[in-house]
Amino acid sequence: MSTTLERTEKRIEMIKRQLMRIGPMRPGSVSRQYRLPKEKKQPFYQISYTHRMRSRSEYVRREHLAAVRQETANFKRFKKLIDKWIALALEASQLRMKSRHDARPRKSCKSR
After folding, report:
1. Which residues span the domain enclosing 67?
2. What superkingdom does the record give (predicted)?
């Protein structure tokens, strides 16, 4: 196995370990809204997200705000790690195919 392939597979294993440490998560973004927007009075928080191709918005109580923000941050980290994993998996697959191709015995073309 090539050293490049070994390094790529070690990076994939590192990503898997990081994924295991991610806590509770949920998609979306938290925003502050106002009941009286022109006067910017009576603020409240809501989370907006899309799941299974349906957009949703939910009210977030102030006492849950920190937890919801942490969950959305965890989800963003999860998505980034998954994207890296996919890129590395593609790279590893290409390296494996290349090493198999290079290891195959070549047919010689003899002229008659």
Report:
1. 3-99
2. Bacteria
Report if residue 108 sits inside a domain: no
> How confident is the model over 86-101, as pLDDT tens digits?
999 999 999 999 887 7
In one-letter notation, the amino acid at residue 102 is: D
Q: What is the pLDDT of residues 30-50, one digit of tens each?
A: 999 999 999 999 999 999 999
Residue 105 is assigned to a structural domain of this protein: no
Stated length of the chain: 112
99 CB contacts (<8 Å, ≥6 apart)? 1, 2, 5
Q: How far apart are CA 67 and CA 24, in angstroms?
A: 9
Q: For tokens 């923000």, what's the residue?
A: 69
Tokens standing for residue 61: 């109580």
Phi, psi of 54 (to 5 degrees): -125, 125
pTM of the model: 0.81
- Distance, CA of 47 to chain centre: 20
**How many independent structural domains does the chain possess?**
1
